[in-house]
Structures are given as structure tokens and as C-alpha cells.
Design a protein that fits this description.
By secondary structure, the protein is mainly α. It has two domains: 68 residues; 191 residues, no CATH class. The chain is 55% helix and 2% strand. The chain has 16 helices and two strands. It has a two-stranded antiparallel sheet.
Amino acid sequence: MEQAPEIFQDTDACYKAPYSPFLFNIYINDLADSLTAIPNSPAIPNALLFADNIQLIPANRKQALILVKIVEDWCNKNGMKINVKKLKGANWHSMIKLNIYKTFVRSIWEYGLPLLKYYSQENIKIIQKVQTKALGLITDCSESTGKQYRSLTHSITAIEEIEDRADTLGIIFGFHYYKLSYNNPLKKLVPKFGTVFRDRNALISSGIHKSRTFQKILKKTTERNLKNVLELELKKRKLENISKWKTKRAALIKPEARKKSNLTDVSINIKSKTDCKLAIKWRTDKCLRIQETDKLFNRKKIDKLVERLHNIIKKINREPEPP
């Protein structure tokens, strides 16, 4: 057997070298190809692969058996074993699931969303239903709880509702249009709507490229500071959108409970997956009520929060069941 090139030699006990993820992706590439080769809905992949985790997404029981058989055969062929401890659904941290949603799901329907809002409110409602269900899965809520606490799951994950997000993207589109050079073809084409083309139904004619909110921001600042001011205004707007609900549960998420960079609630930012689930459950479950605990949902008091939640669970477990 030929000796491995020097770059791949590793004498450490742990072989998670920087090139390991890349090599692993190559190693399982044929498995990904086999899974995606099975017919499914165009909008739903047969599987999600993240690091060394695989989540199968069958459309029905028959397809589930086919996908499991593909994975089983591949493992037998390649000398690998399935970690049965991870077979209870998507056993990922809520923040990982949130990042997957924002990267691979939301990015699909966000493309052209401002246009869609002008065109069809019905489609906005459909996408909102999908997002509500997705955020329920991310926060480990049942489907009924996810619907009941729709505003709360949006607030915990710092995800704007679809209509609000469409408006935000419209503001960003206005900024990019404004920054185009005078010689850009789009800048020359837009003024012709209403004169040459005379199409009142065109989205350009409706002023989609001239967001009123962006125009207000534009008046507040100079050309030089526009980008920085816009970022601050968008963050302020996002905070308002995810905090506007007056429900009792959602109102408990205070500004000090949010991560500064992305405005997510402290509950979803706890590193331990178990503690994260426990904290989110506190946010959504009315049964877990102990005075003053909500005040510990502060990004500077995470350790105290986790300790309190552990003590609560211990107390619940010690309490005898009612006769």
C-alpha cells in the first residue's frame, strides 16, 4: 500500500484535522446522490446533510422505507454504523436548525418576495403557514403549540413574519437600486415605464424600487453614511417587528434577553442542547411558572438561568403525583 502524502499524515490521537470535513463530504457524496435520485416533491429534498448528520425527509411510509434501505446498504458497504441515539427526529440544537432554515429554506422564497407581495397576498399567507410550522419545529414545539404561540416562536428566533420581511427586503432593494451607477441599464430602463411602456400594472410603475421607508432613511443621512445608517435602521425595524406582539408570553422577551448581533432570544443561544430546550419550554409552557425566573432570561445571566431551570426540574421530579 502506498504511503499517504505528507499533507494527510496525522499522528494525533484525534483525527478531526482541518481537512476532515472536506474528506468526509467526498466520502459520502455517493450516498447523497443515491438519496436525491429517488423522486420526491420538487420543493422538498429527500434528505438534509449537515456535518455528520443526515435527516431523511420522506413523503410517505413507502418512500421512508426506500430511503432507509439506501442508507443501510451504503453503511454496510462502507463499514459504517448508524448512531441509533440520534434516530429520534432531528436531534440538532435549535440554533443549528434555525441556521439551516435561514440558509436553505428561507433563502428560496425570499428571492423576489417583495415582488410576490405586490402580486399576491394569498401566496404570502401560504408562505407564512410554512414558516410558522418551521419555527415550531425549530423550537421543538408541537404543531398545535407552534400555531398557538406563533408570535412567540417568531420572537424567540428573531424571524420577521413574511409580510414584514417582504417590506424589509423592499427597503434593501431600494438601497441597491439607489446605489446603481447612472449608466446601469436598469437606471435607464425604469424611467421609461409610464412614458414609453405605459404599463400601470408593472411593478416598477407601482414604485417598488422607491420604498417610502428607504426614502425617509435617505433624508436622514449623507451619502457617505448611508450604508451604516441603513443597517441601524433595519436592525431597529427588525426589533420592532419581532417585539410588536402584545401576547403575555411574547411580551416577556425583553431587549436584554436578546443577542446583540442577531436579536435572537437567550433561550435559543444556550450552548447545551438540553438546556436550550428547557429554556424554550419555559418560554412556551404555562405550567412552568416560578416567580422571578423570567428576569433571569438575560444574556448576562445565562449561568444563573440554567441553574434555576435545573432546580425547577429537580423540584418537579420530586413532587409526588396527585392521587
